[in-house]
Design brief:
8 strands, 17% helix, globular
Length: 174
């Protein structure tokens, strides 16, 4: 099992638009298929995310993770959370629950910089995947405000996407 991120970021370093939406939704070419999220999700056993990232999914027309175990880092269980979703406020304990439930596939670490940094500090982040979207948004949530500068990253792969975005995958080294 590897803990992997795969998130979109604007050319100027933002993961959200000024109004708080994920930056990829501002791209007119955005679709989960074109950006490879559908294929990526097929390689996973589970998703692990922060509560702030999870809550919008509760109102979605379609459950975003139909075939995956879902784990949420949060101090409270949001109203309307499906029974099969595991919510825990302790990041180490939640990681152990993810590992115990895993059947060999990877886990997508979904969330903002704080959640990613939490698991990086625990030494659990294996791959940092970024999709650089050809947009300048000027403000929003930055990719790195909470991420430590002691993270050693090694470029593992780069590939252009048909939309003009570029996918970069780094191995997080201790």
């Amino acid at each position: 099992m590897q803990l992997r991120t795969r998130m979109c970021v604007s050319l100027d370093g933002y993961v959200t638009t000024p109004d708080g939406w994920p930056v990829q939704v501002a791209d007119p070419d955005w679709s989960p298929e074109a950006f490879g999220f559908v294929d990526f999700q097929k390689t996973l056993d589970a998703v692990l995310m922060g509560r702030t990232t999870f809550e919008p999914a509760l109102g979605a027309e379609r459950w975003p993770w139909p075939d995956l175990d879902v784990f949420v880092l949060g101090s409270r269980r949001p109203t309307g959370t499906p029974d099969h979703v595991v919510v825990d406020g302790d990041p180490e304990r939640l990681l152990e629950r993810v590992r115990a439930a895993n059947s060999g596939g990877d886990v997508h670490l979904v969330g903002g910089p704080q959640t990613i940094e939490t698991y990086r500090r625990l030494g659990a982040l294996d791959k940092l995947g970024l999709i650089v979207v050809p947009l300048l948004v000027g403000e929003g949530l930055r990719l790195t405000p909470a991420i430590s500068t002691d993270t050693a990253l090694k470029l593992e792969e780069e590939r252009p996407l048909p939309t003009g975005a570029v996918e970069l995958t780094y191995t997080a080294e201790a």
